[in-house]
Amino acid sequence: MTCYAFSLQTLRGAQPFRADCGFDKTIVITDGYASMSREFKQQLKKHGLVALTILFDDAQTCEDFAVFGEVVLLGDVTQ
């Protein structure tokens, strides 16, 4: 299993990616403006990342994370 714990600096390629914590899934909560470098996206694909992306505010999509799993609206998963 692999842990994906990354910050905005990692997404932008300013810090190295670490995948060694013992989990293989992640949850991303974003306003839809989250993005990542092409190299980082390739690393995550290589490691088999599975992500649930939860969008808040007026966001309807998040292309960079859609390739890793389901993208849902916060209002659809909360009461």
Your description of this structure?
Helices cover 27% and strands 19% of the residues. By secondary structure, it is of the alpha/beta class. The protein has one domain. The protein has a three-stranded parallel beta sheet.
Q: Taking all residues together, what is the mean pLDDT?
A: 75
Give the neighbour order of strands across the main sheet.
1-2-3
**How many structural domains can be distinguished in the coordinates?**
1
Q: Radius of gyration from the CA trace?
A: 12 Å
User: What percent of residues adopt helix (DSSP H or I)?
Assistant: 25-40%
As a percent range, the share of strand residues is 15-25%
Q: What is the first-to-last residue Cα distance?
A: 32 Å
The computed structural class is alpha/beta
**Order of H and E elements:** HEHEHEH
Count of alpha/pi helices: 4
Assembly type of the chains comes to single chain
Q: What's the total number of strands?
A: 3
3D shape? globular
Write the layout of secondary structure elements.
Elements: H1 8-11, E1 25-30, H2 38-46, E2 50-55, H3 63-66, E3 71-73, H4 74-77
Parallel strand pairs: 1-2, 2-3
Throw out a few tags for this protein.
79 residues, single chain, 3-stranded parallel β-sheet, globular, 27% helix, alpha/beta
State the gist of this model.
The protein has 79 residues and is of the alpha/beta class.
